[in-house]
Amino acid sequence: MTEPQLLPTPGRRPETVSRARRVAGDRTEGQSYLEVKDLTVSFPTADGLVGAVQGLSYSLPLGRTLAVVGESGSGKSVSSMAIMGLHDPRSTRMTGSITVGGEEIVGMTPTELRKRRGANAAMIFQDPQSSLHPYFTVGDQIIEAYRAHHRVSKRVARDRAVDMLGRVGIPNPRRRLDDYPHQFSGGMRQRAMIAMALVNDPKLLIADEPTTALDVTVQAQILDLIMELQQDFGSAVLFITHDLGVVAEIADDVLVMYGGRGVEYGRAESILGQPLHPYTWGLLESIPAVSGEPARLHPIPGTPPSLLALPSGCSFHPRCEFAGRVPGAACSVDLPDLVSRTEDTTRTSRCHLADPAGIFATDILPRLP
Amino acid sequence: MLIYILRRIASAVSVVIVTLVASFGLFFVAPTDPAGTICGQRCTPERHADISASLNLDQPVAQQVGEYLKGLAVGRTYHSGGLTIECDAPCLGYSYTLGQPVTKLIGQALPVTVSIVLGGAVVYLIAGILAGIIAARRRGTYLDRLMVGTSLGINAVPYFVVALLVSLYATFLPHAGYHPLLENPFTWAAGLLAAWLTLGLANSASYTRYARASMIETLGEDYIRTARAKGISERRVVYRHGLRAAITPIATIFGLDLAFQLTGAIFTEAMFGLPGLGVLTLRAFNQYDLPVLMGGVLVGSVVLVVMNLLVDILYTILDPRVRLG
Amino acid sequence: MSTTTDTAIRPAPADQPGGDGTPLLELRDLQMHFTARGDGWFGRNAHRIRAVDGVSLQLRAGETLGLVGESGCGKTTTGRLITRLLEPTGGQVLYQGTDITHLKEKDLRPYRRELQLIFQDPYSSLNPRHTVGTIIGAPLRVHNLVPKGKELDRVRELLEVVGLNPEHYNRYPHEFSGGQRQRIGIARALAVQPKVIVADEPVSALDVSIQAQVMNLLEDLRKEFNIAFVFIAHDLGVVRHFCDRVAVMYLGRVAEIADRDPLYGTPAHPYTQALLSAVPDLGVVRGAAPKPRIRLAGDVPGPMDPPTGCRFRSRCWKAEEVCATTTPPLLQVGAGHAAACHFAGSLQEEAAA
Ligand SMILES: Nc1ncnc2c1ncn2[C@@H]1O[C@H](COP(=O)(O)OP(=O)(O)OP(=O)(O)O)[C@@H](O)[C@H]1O
Ligand SMILES: Nc1ncnc2c1ncn2[C@@H]1O[C@H](COP(=O)(O)OP(=O)(O)O)[C@@H](O)[C@H]1O
Ligand code: SF4
Ligand code: SF4
Ligand SMILES: [Mg+2]
Ligand SMILES: [Mg+2]
């Protein structure tokens, strides 16, 4: 009946994938496609200034996947929308610098921004149901995205759309092109969104929780698809999620955000294997895993901070179990810098702890499964 | 789809028949004396009986309804005071006060009302929706507040005042009057311009607010963000993606408004001396001209039912999700 | 873990003689077919939605049974049937041996007290116009559980039990965060001292750190009050953490049911195997053995016209002809471990190998 789909691949993101990525990355060694420096995004509201993103910096070369993780409200979406230039300049204050392919985004005129949106960088969103226009056919929407950046006839654009739909694994693409989004299933809608985002060969793909609204079996399909397409297109992927399991599956690098700031950055293996920031550690301790011996969860106490009144000093200090280990009241007074505190200079963390690796290694790691 | 439409038409027809029978009951079986009212103060018993007979008031209600329906289908003949009047199908009765078949009266009045209402609708739809979109895009600015304030202000003023103001101040407009479209489109339009402006101005105020609300909601949708992320122009985002979705709820309101106005734009007709359906029914009401009133009710219910049907069909065209099959 | 949760002392099947033989709650071939109103004025094109289509389960006192499965497979509907918020269109619900399937609202009242529901959405499930005190106090009043005047004391006590400030009884739901609201919902359920709590995705809407807080709370409560849980979730990690037994549902039916360890360790049903292998697993980064990678094609078909025979066959890579013609019964593949697949036994060996 059905073809066997049991893939004999041995477990984790096959090593071959990562290695292939490294190669793609090497071509642009040392030179990032996306560079965010000291980005601040705030919204004036009736209750005061909401500082959604504060002093965020990171870089992302072609061929690599950076996962941005954090709880809801930590500024993941706001920072990625800033890269796309999707914030309304009338109600948003933005400072710092974002360069995409060497071009500065902050301060660009709306028209210049528009020309780059969807061409250099494209985005897919969390809920494929509400992100596609219910009144236009899927094909219509993909064709529009292509013709926004290519002066081609409808026919050529249509062929391109059929191509893309086939590419993202929709069977019978020529026929399905004229379907409306409600005639697609949830997974197919997200595939269509991906086809629409990649139709212009963008060098940067931003995926904002693209699988959160999907079932696990469909999520697995979509994650596979994104990784496969990334290899084919050699693009940089900024993947936003709150699911550390997903991070383990797809990320090369990880940026952990808390209260609008980056608090830890580094290679996925090292961050997930040996966190250096108490918040990252807390997140990892909070997750009930599907393998290993089930143990009592170790939640982070308290609730995420209000962006209207961030705690002084390290904004994590009211919830941090390790604040007491820092001499004096540094945690509640001084904001730590995001700097490297170990020999591994690719890792940075924003914490006053003198030797986090030591503390976690002796006190904490035994508790991780 | 076809079966759906047929079924809707069948139910529409039954609604019209029920309305017809019900209003028959109310008008003709009411404990009033319509024949006496028509007859006037110096009424002789013979004349009273004569009028009663010509209105079929002396027959049982069921038979009256039957006669009426038969008249609709094949026409009927009236005998009144020795006179014989042929009323051709579709016969809606004969107006003694005007001395004309009702069908002919309505046939003259309906085009006037339709011209006024459709022309006015073009004005208020375009003006209202455009203003609504502009206000929605500039939400929270002074322009937005000014537009919402103005719209509320216009709505607060009684309609006849609006009409009065238009006729007093817009003196540059051609003299109001009805000239059939087919005779001369220019004189037709010129004569109706003042009425269109009045109807348009008054209604565009409400439509500005409907459109603004609908547009604000739509512009907050995720798919609008998707459209922006594609890099298409803001105008295209608003007018293609936004308007397409925002228009659907407006279409529903519009269908019902239109149906209501088509049954007679009484003020507009009266203020500008246009002989439309509203004026005709109002006169019939005052003079107790039952056949004309009945005709008005019938036309009104047909218009309502047809508009409802059109709105539903329009909906399935606008929103692919309710499209069948 | 409390002693009641160990598999060793789980009572034998219900038909065996001996004291505690009857399960606390039993579902027998439960069905819920909704009739969706069709198009047109008279709903001519009405169709049946087989949301739950033959589910049999047992729940013992103090036990936690997990219900997992993809969206739309009938988890919530099953939960609502258990608490009799819905009346089943077929089958039976037995509570302590009493058939409550078609009881009238009046006769249901004593059972309503013992069967409580916690909802997924901490935002919409609390009335925004009532104070927390009123919300938690309502079931106390309805069931006449505390003497007049003592109500507030009990509310305070309950708030304390779920880890909220007892002096906050006068506040409104919007003054609390998502996790705190979920605690309020839990306090409301606890107020009537239920024997069974059906928790419908109680932590799905919460951030991971908050989710862990609420999970720990539920675990403490269950030990302290010996409450049996039907724990509905789509997160397999969460279910593994909380439940003694787990039932995997697919399109309105139970595909596999087993104790936790056999279910996660040696799943027998192809769907369970695929589901488990699809979960992104953090453990792997830290050296846990990698799982097989099974990728299912396509999405779950709708419950309007499920495939004939085995419901999973449209996505199953093991499907053979018999799967289209014969509905597989729940086959015993181990102690307390059953799977609805014609080839369950052999597949389990494969998985274990
Ligand atoms: N009142 C109803 N009328 C019609 N169909 C219904 C009704 N309630 C539920 N359904 C349908 O029954 C099926 C099962 O629904 P249910 O809510 O139990 O799923 P679920 O497993 O809880 O899914 P989720 O994980 O999304 O919460 C779905 O297809 C749903 O659309
Ligand atoms: N347009 C806006 N006006 C005011 N506040 C906003 C706006 N957009 C986002 N925020 C706030 O910014 C914070 C970060 O939001 P977001 O980036 O969406 O979080 P997440 O990390 O969950 O994606 C949130 O507290 C959100 O409420
Ligand atoms: S700086 Fe202090 S409060 Fe902040 S994370 Fe480090 S130890 Fe905790
Ligand atoms: S019965 Fe057949 S189709 Fe169903 S799960 Fe087993 S092998 Fe697959
Ligand atoms: Mg977000
Ligand atoms: Mg549910």
From TrEMBL, chain A:
Topology versus the membrane, per the UniProt entry? Peripheral membrane protein
* ABC transporter domain location: 34-284
A single GO cellular-component term from the record reads: plasma membrane
Q: What is its main location?
A: membrane
UniProt signal peptide = none
Q: Which UniProt keywords apply?
A: ATP-binding, Cell membrane, Membrane, Nucleotide-binding, Transport
| Protein localization | Cell membrane
The answer to whether UniProt assigns keyword Heme to this entry is no
User: CDD domains in the record, alphabetically?
Assistant: ABC_NikE_OppD_transporters
The yes or no answer to whether the keyword Cell membrane is present is yes
Q: Which Gene3D superfamilies does its entry note?
A: P-loop containing nucleotide triphosphate hydrolases
Q: Where is this region: Disordered?
A: 1-29
Q: Where is the composition biased (Basic and acidic residues)?
A: 12-29
Q: A GO term (biological process) for this protein? A: peptide transport
Q: Which Pfam families match?
A: ABC_tran, oligo_HPY
One annotated GO molecular function = ATP hydrolysis activity
Q: Which SUPFAM superfamilies did the record assign? A: P-loop containing nucleoside triphosphate hydrolases
Against PANTHER family, the record matches this protein to: DIPEPTIDE TRANSPORT ATP-BINDING PROTEIN DPPD (PTHR43297:SF2), OLIGOPEPTIDE TRANSPORT ATP-BINDING PROTEIN APPD (PTHR43297)
Q: Which family does it belong to?
A: Belongs to the ABC transporter superfamily.
Q: Which NCBIfam families match?
A: oligo_HPY
Name by which UniProt lists this protein: Peptide ABC transporter ATP-binding protein
Organism in which the protein naturally occurs: Micromonospora inaquosa
Automatic annotation (TrEMBL), chain B:
Cellular component GO terms held in the UniProt record: plasma membrane
Q: What is the predominant subcellular site recorded for this chain?
A: membrane
* Membrane topology field: Multi-pass membrane protein
| One Pfam short name | BPD_transp_1_N
GO BP: transmembrane transport
Q: Does the keyword Cell membrane apply?
A: yes
User: Which keywords label this protein?
Assistant: Cell membrane, Membrane, Transmembrane, Transmembrane helix, Transport
Query: Membrane-crossing residues?
Result: 12-30, 109-134, 146-166, 186-205, 245-272, 292-318
Does the record bear Zinc-finger in its keywords?
A: no
Looking at the record, the residues that make up the ABC transmembrane type-1 domain are 110-315
Subcellular localization(s) per the UniProt record: Cell membrane
As for family, the record states: Belongs to the binding-protein-dependent transport system permease family.
Q: What is this protein identified as?
A: ABC transporter permease
Automatic annotation (TrEMBL), chain C:
List, for all copies, the residue spans of the domain called ABC transporter: 27-276
In its UniProt record, which GO terms are filed under biological process?
peptide transport; transmembrane transport
Could you tell me which residues belong to the region Disordered?
A: 1-21
Which SUPFAM superfamilies has this protein been placed in? P-loop containing nucleoside triphosphate hydrolases
Fetch the SMART domains from UniProt.
AAA
Could you tell me the keywords of this UniProt record? ATP-binding, Nucleotide-binding, Transport
Identification of the protein by name: Dipeptide/oligopeptide/nickel ABC transporter ATP-binding protein
Q: Does the keyword Nucleotide-binding apply?
A: yes
InterPro entries tied to this protein: AAA+_ATPase, ABC_transp_ATP-bind, ABC_transporter-like_ATP-bd, ABC_transporter-like_CS, Oligopep_ABC_C, P-loop_NTPase
From which organism does this entry originate? Answer: Micromonospora inaquosa
* Molecular function terms from GO: ATP binding; ATP hydrolysis activity
Which Pfam families would you find in this protein's record?
Answer: ABC_tran, oligo_HPY
Q: Can you tell me which family this protein belongs to?
A: Belongs to the ABC transporter superfamily.
